[in-house]
Amino acid sequence: MIRVGVGFDAHRFDASRPLVLGGVTIPDHAGLSGHSDADVLSHAVADALLGAARLGDLGEHFPDDARWKDASSIEILEVVARMVEEDGWSVASVDATVITEEPALAPYRDEMRMNLAKALGVHSGELSVKATTTDGMGFTGRGEGIASLVVAALFRPDPEPPK
Description:
Elements: E1 2-21, E2 24-32, H1 40-53, H2 58-61, H3 73-86, E3 90-99, H4 109-120, E4 127-132, H5 138-141, E5 145-155
Parallel strand pairs: 3-4
Antiparallel strand pairs: 1-2, 1-5, 3-5
C-alpha cells in the first residue's frame, strides 16, 4: 500500500534569529519568525509525512506552548518519523522545494538532504531538496519570507486480503 501526502509551510523573515533550513544554519542572513526554530523545510516535510499517514498535522502534535518554544525542527521531524513508523509506514520518497529569492541554497542542499535523511532514518537517495524563486512575485519575491512545498510517499506491505 502506498500513500502520498503534501506539506506546505511559510514564515516571515526575522532579523533577530538565525536562518535554519533543513537543520542547516545559513550564515549572514535573517532567520525566520516562528515558535520553534521556524525551519520551513523540516516543517513541510513533517506535515507531508503526517498527511500521508493520516496522523493529523503539525499544529495538532506540536502546539505553540512552552514545550516546543525554540525547538529544533529536525528533532520535531524525528518525532514525526517515529510516529509514522509506529503506525506501520516507511518513507518511500520525499521531494522538497524551498521557495525564496535569497539566500542562494545550492551550497547547502546536500547537507540539508543528509540532515533530513538522518532524521527520517532513510538513505539520502530517498530525498530531493530543490530551491526556486518566484521571480519577484508574492511575499517570497518581495523578500518577506520563505516557503516550502513537499510531497512525501509512504509505503507498507498490503494488509492481508479478507477471507
